[in-house]
């Protein structure tokens, strides 16, 4: 049975923790709003990009000039998994969800006899994948010092991926990130980057909008496609990073919210316990006095 | 009086501009082009340069863009820039940083074709530096 003083100390320490988690929740909420705005601001660009890409792909379709980034190498022996996670913990199951999703995917590929390479973006994913796949990790990018994810960060990652592709280090590249559905729901998602999966639905909407006019290309369709596809990869990575930041903040907010609530419950319980013991002690002292007086 | 059309300037970070304009001058890779309403559908890549937008009200605004491409339709024009800033907000440091980065890329380039592309990019940037920021 803990003494009164112990209980008092515990209550004080839980209260201090609660203050911290509450502050963290508020910080996450503020950051979430900003991250959401950034993700929304980036949306028009990626939407237009996919529309234009679908358009050109239709125009070029089947031509030999289509760059290899789009058609792939024709094999699928070596897979590169780009796993994007957050840099910090304390955000519930956010990081482990992405890592688990990627791990399952990697296991499945390994079971099929494929070669798997892993590229980690963010520290947390690296930490948890390192345990099982240390030998498969080919590189990592740390975004620890980046306060606000800019396009340049994504561009750098995309360039690393593309230079690896140019050297023939892999055949298929898949991007893992967490799609931001809402503050309480983030869904781990896999997106195939190389070869670029033709987005048929986008092409169809473009057709519906009557955008399939006969274009003039300057310089020519092949050259534009050459320029466009690397850029599209950067944009996809950028979007994944933004969604991740928003998701991380959402997860952190709900994790810290429940932590604050748990701390509150714990304080109530401890306080009840404390009061009960205090009462018991008073009663005990009274009994001692009374029985002492009676003995006289 | 020329007709107006929709012009959108988008960078990966945000939508910079979306409004009715009467004409836009775009620094296309193969030379500057002026887009007006009812332009033939064209798709072109753009080089680092200045986009001049003449709004329907007659107000002229200028933006500096660094590469990207433009999607032109008779009814509108969308410019997807890799990076774009209003002319007033551009400063010498950011431009210089890009030039330095381009120089670094050239030094690192191994393949001649790639090097050629990068060198042209650098030339465009230096040119831009000369016209945008008066010494």
TrEMBL record, chain A:
Tell me how this protein sits in the membrane. Peripheral membrane protein
Sorted alphabetically, the keyword list is: ATP synthesis, Cell inner membrane, Cell membrane, CF(1), Hydrogen ion transport, Ion transport, Membrane, Transport
Q: Which GO terms describe its molecular function?
A: ATP binding; proton-transporting ATP synthase activity, rotational mechanism
Check the record and name the PROSITE patterns matching this protein.
ATPASE_GAMMA
List where in the cell it is found.
Cell membrane; Membrane; Thylakoid
Instruction: Report any one BP term from Gene Ontology.
Output: proton motive force-driven plasma membrane ATP synthesis
Sorted alphabetically, which InterPro entries does this protein's record hold?
Answer: ATP_synth_F1_ATPase_gsu, ATP_synth_F1_gsu, ATP_synth_F1_gsu_CS
What Gene3D superfamilies does the database record attribute to this sequence? 3.40.1380.10, ATP synthase, gamma subunit, helix hairpin domain (1.10.287.80)
Q: Which HAMAP family match?
A: ATP_synth_gamma_bact
What this protein is reported to do is described as: Produces ATP from ADP in the presence of a proton gradient across the membrane. The gamma chain is believed to be important in regulating ATPase activity and the flow of protons through the CF(0) complex.
Tell me how this protein assembles. Answer: F-type ATPases have 2 components, CF(1) - the catalytic core - and CF(0) - the membrane proton channel. CF(1) has five subunits: alpha(3), beta(3), gamma(1), delta(1), epsilon(1). CF(0) has three main subunits: a, b and c.
What is the name of this protein? Answer: ATP synthase gamma chain
Organism of origin is Metarhizobium album
Query: What gene, per UniProt, encodes this protein?
Result: atpG
Automatic annotation (TrEMBL), chain B:
* GO CC annotations, alphabetized: endomembrane system; plasma membrane; proton-transporting ATP synthase complex
Subcellular location, in the record's words? Answer: Cell membrane; Endomembrane system
Q: Which UniProt keywords apply?
A: ATP synthesis, Cell membrane, CF(1), Hydrogen ion transport, Ion transport, Membrane, Transport
Membrane-topology annotation of the record = Peripheral membrane protein
Determine the domain of life of the protein's source.
Bacteria
Q: Mind telling me which residue stretches traverse the membrane in this protein?
A: none
Q: Which family does it belong to?
A: Belongs to the ATPase epsilon chain family.
Q: What does this protein do?
A: Produces ATP from ADP in the presence of a proton gradient across the membrane.
Q: How does it assemble?
A: F-type ATPases have 2 components, CF(1) - the catalytic core - and CF(0) - the membrane proton channel. CF(1) has five subunits: alpha(3), beta(3), gamma(1), delta(1), epsilon(1). CF(0) has three main subunits: a, b and c.
> What name is this protein filed under?
ATP synthase epsilon chain
Give the gene symbol: atpC
